[in-house]
Amino acid sequence: MSSFNNDNHDNLITMTTLINTNQILNIIIMAEKTYAGVSVGVNEEGYMTDASQWTKEVGAAIATDEGIELTDKHYELIEFVRTKVGNGETLTIRGIGKSGIVNAKEFYAMFPGAPLKKATKISGVPKPSSCI
What we know:
Elements: H1 6-29, E1 31-35, E2 38-42, H2 56-65, H3 72-86, H4 93-97, H5 104-110, H6 115-123
Antiparallel strand pairs: 1-2
Helix pairs in contact: 2-6, 3-6
């Protein structure tokens, strides 16, 4: 015999409501933005949710939004960032400064204000967990 009573029914309704609310929040948080004529998925902070959607043209459009004009050196560093993240490695400003591409001072000059946040956003990869 089942011990399903009215209290269990109320809990089930509450859980269903919570699940539906979370699904709605996920839909709201996941958005799309168009860069260089390409619609890409972005999260609530504007970081791409699918790195495979990134192209140089998309990166350039994101950079324009961030107030940065990309140079060959930027693209070299973007490739470094994408490779490191693709390999599951943690990005740090210190690590980028030791990349052999730029030193830390150059990195700050290339991506002023928040270099690691901007570099990863433009590179189409997730924001590093070390960034607030």
